[in-house]
Amino acid sequence: MVFTFNLGFPRMGANRELKRLVENFWSGKIDENTLLIDTKNLREEHWLLQKNAGLDHIPSNDFSFYDQVVDHSYAFGVIPARYKNLNPGLETYFAMCRGLQKPGVDVAACEMKKWFDTNYHYIVPEFEPNQQFTLNSTKVIDEYKEAKALGIQTHPVILGPISYLMLGKPTKDAPQGFKPIQLLNRLLPLYEELLSKLVDAGVTWIQIDEPCLVLDLPSTIKNEYASAYSVLTKVSPQLKILIATYFERIGTNLDFIIDTPINAIHIDLIRAPDQLEPILKRLPAKVSLSLGLVNGRNIWKTNLEVAIVEAQKAIDALGSERVFIAPSCSLLHTPHSIQSEKKIDSEILNWLSFAVEKIKEIVIISKALNNGAQSVRKELEANRKSIQSHRNSARTQNPIVQQKMKALTPDMFRRKLPFRERQVKQRKKLNLPLFPTTTIGSLPQTKEVRAVRAKLKKGEINQTQYDDFIKKEIEKYVHFQEEIGIDVLVHGEFERNDMVEFFGENLQGYVFSGNGWVQSYGSRCTKPPIIFGDISRPNPMTVEIIKYAQSLTDKPMKGMLTGPITMLQWSFVRDDQPRKDTAFQLALAIREEVHDLEAAGISVIQIDEPAIREGLPLRKEDWSTYLNWAVDAFLLSSTGVDCSTQIHTHMCYSDFNDIIEAIQRMDADVITIENSRSDLKLLNAFEEHEYTAEIGPGLYDIHSPRIPTIEELKARLHAILKYIPKNLVWANPDCGLKTRGWPEVEAALKNMTDVAKEFRAIDANC
């Protein structure tokens, strides 16, 4: 018989219980004991839910207070020296994630990066050449025992040694040429020790995630994989090891593990359906195959009939006892359940499947394979009707949008003049000083702001009362920005719940969940809107509020928009047309908004694209196709303006060397980047490729509550000037300030503007 297997479950809870618990702990509202007890209850709830659904293989250690990679670092004693004097346990753990400021202590957080091509972020491990590994935590064992006490035999999930080392970075003082993979032989004995302890606790299966197996890897890494898994498979004959890959095809990297005595491999058949047959031909006789047939990264129902046909191919080749049915990846990337959804109309809701429902789909597929389709006849018929309803619905098509797509011309993808000529016109118009200061867009969304928005949604206040409140907030903080000397102002985005959701709510072709939250990092969750049909803009979305903000000041006020690729990446996207087509539809809608903002007198317009690097395919051979249409989408959204209108964009954590030519082709006048946690290494790309437009490398980290000192801001700006000419440098935080509190924001921005003023004065006296 085939078995069901889950790679991971969303950890936040049906109503974001984990978010509230962690944030209450940070703010001192609950103590550590309460945090531990309540999160234990949450884990138990999730295990029982999966057991009751009928899953055979249920994961443990997929829970985390912040991120599974930092859990791994803490567990293996990979704790940077700057945290060594902190209290062991949660103080050290959360300091690695968020930094820590208290009397006598001021430490910055570890670097944070995107997890492959998702919007999830992980904390980057830092390795010393003489790194000493120790088993510093029993979390993975403890959580296995918790589930076992409930009568649930789980398979613990850990990050594999090769991927763990490859996802890390050397410490600042490491000698040139040192690579963390060189530490493998030091690390493996700790893996052996951990696996031995798990076996002693009763573990029979373990899931070892090796997501780096889907990347372009040098052939030399084969020896490391062979070495690692030859060692780990010898820990105990009672322990079975499944290596999990996801997000792409494993391809020729299968060679790295095919000859090791592992027990099973998981492959992603949503992102890479064509890999099934080649792998079936090569799989050793004693190795099982886990089929990722249910999409772990999108929210549309699985076509169960198609999935069953694919699974049958594996059964025919391997036998049913060697086949697992699974999601494509961990369900961490999907919302909890549709059960609480009240906002989505019944037709579209019938097309959707969140994590709880995806587990049910996995079980239905296995029952059909084990017991025949008749055993789940009603479920399959209901699924067939949902798929047909989605496929045939007239709501997904808009003839006007289709006509606009056919009318695209080459001139709509380029600015009228090159950057240097535009720069002259913009400087004359804007009259900005050296080292102009700005923020990325959002200002703190206080409890009061959120409470007033909630009252509007509940009908306790009307739209006029809400608008009046928002205008007062804007006025207050426009004056604050003027007082501290910000040069290009923002209105604060107080009216926006989320940088993607807000625009989606004002576009046709979107629908919104009420509780479809997905973890982005730590306690930060997003509620991705759902693109179900053709995109169009029925009315201006931001013009009136930006006009109002501009009326309060003589300084430039930025129009703030979210770019088409970020709208695409941070939404759940329709799967019935190419992503390129959806991106271009989004770009046309944003282009219309840009035109209306300019017509309203707004001379600086920011089109955020923090997710453009995130969307880059994991295999280099696929890059050019994506980058061509992704950059074209940005150009389509941004090029319809006069040359004196300054176009900004913003990008999040990115390895810019990978895409610097594409960034140059975007032809933005100013780019601001998240840079503060990267030790300035991101700027190498801009220097090496002689990037000529203006750039604002983030001066301080907004994902941490600590306030940067004037001294460190000065040191960082000095360092930036080693890479970027002074006449191109902007001073700004590294991201939006929505999640921060006003006291820290006021202090940090005041320090930032004071530093910019000091650098101007120094330059004037030279």
Overall, the morphology is globular
Question: What is the overall number of helices?
Answer: 26
What is the average per-residue confidence, as pLDDT, rounded to a whole number?
Answer: 95
**Percentage beta strand:** 5-15%
Low-confidence stretches: none
Largest sheet: 8 strands, parallel
Question: By helix and strand content, what is the structural category?
Answer: alpha/beta
Active site: 703 (proton donor)
Function: Catalyzes the transfer of a methyl group from 5-methyltetrahydrofolate to homocysteine resulting in methionine formation.
Pfam families: Meth_synt_1, Meth_synt_2
Binding site for L-methionine: 440-442, 493, 608
SSE layout:
Layout: E1 3-4, H1 17-26, H2 32-53, E2 58-60, H3 68-75, H4 90-98, E3 100-102, E4 105-107, E5 112-114, E6 121-123, E7 126-127, H5 139-149, E8 154-159, H6 161-166, E9 169-170, H7 184-201, E10 205-209, H8 221-232, E11 240-244, E12 264-268, H9 276-282, E13 288-294, H10 304-318, E14 323-327, H11 346-349, H12 355-371, H13 377-392, H14 399-406, H15 419-430, H16 447-458, H17 463-484, H18 501-505, E15 508-511, E16 518-521, E17 524-526, E18 530-536, H19 543-551, E19 558-562, H20 564-569, H21 579-599, E20 604-608, H22 623-638, E21 646-651, H23 660-666, E22 670-673, H24 683-688, E23 694-697, H25 710-720, H26 742-765
Parallel strand pairs: 1-14, 2-8, 7-9, 8-10, 10-11, 11-12, 12-13, 13-14, 19-20, 20-21, 21-22, 22-23
Antiparallel strand pairs: 3-4, 5-6, 15-18, 16-17
Helix pairs in contact: 1-2, 5-7, 7-8, 9-10, 10-12, 16-17, 21-22, 22-23
Cofactor: Zn(2+)
Domain Cobalamin-independent methionine synthase MetE N-terminal: 5-309
Keywords: Amino-acid biosynthesis, Metal-binding, Methionine biosynthesis, Methyltransferase, Transferase, Zinc
